[in-house]
Amino acid sequence: MTALDDRLLPVFARQHWLVTLSDVRAAGGSAASASNRVRAGTWSQADVSVYQLTGAPASWEGRVLAPLLAIGGPALASHLTAAALHGVPGFGRGTPEISVPRVGDRRRDGVIVHTSTDLDRCERVVVDGVPVTDVARTLLDIGRLVGDRRLLRAIEWARREGKVDWPTLISTLARHARRGRPGIRRLRRVIVANVERDEITDSDFELLVLALIAEAGLPTPVLHHRVLDGERFVAEVDLAYPALQIAIELDGRVHLDAEVHERDLARQNDLVLAGWTVLRFSYERYRRRPEQVVAEIRAAISAARLAA
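Below the sequence we write its predicted structure tokens.
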């Protein structure tokens, strides 16, 4: 064994007996050093510029890690593979699944490759030496592959284990929501059907509606917009399209209080007198008829644009 092999042994050990050409160079070797070892049979080619130590125990984690090392950058284990790595019950070690940026040809034999435009919106974590999507993003991703009941079981396990909570899932939903985004609709449906077992906050409600608006392909409204009439402060509204003078008010449980309700009515009148269109939605309305919420927001936008 040479000095180069000695230096690379700890790298092999922490990377499921894999090294990259960059690892070889960092240890003082070269591309020729790697090629010589492949020809000699002491290493084998695991992927592009990724090598496996011959005779070392093969592992499923190594099969997942090899393409990630080859692609580099933000590539992460994802979907069912991420669920298995995180230990979600009922998800076994099947064909490796990874997510990569939507750039170039990333196809791999024996690996399911998902292209993604929003990998930067999730946290990169390392499980058993493998870079993987965080638990909340993983739950979103598997929402495209499993039914509501199985997704809920996975969420309940993650909540019991302290890996996610409802606000984290709602925030993840809002960050990733867009029209046609796989998994969004199922995750939103499961959240809405089950979150009321705990108290839902006004901020959670706002994020859920933002996700619904994004999922419908509507413009993104401004959160907590301050409305002024000249220099006079009129109100701070939950969501707004300022250029169209549309205010969206979301009434959580606190708005059932008589005193709060009276303030809401006075504020609504002030907004209308200042020339604003005001839409009000309760959580119950959002939960039961989300399609009506979308339809009314879309109609208000269309009317304001026609009037402009």
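The radius of gyration is 26 Å.
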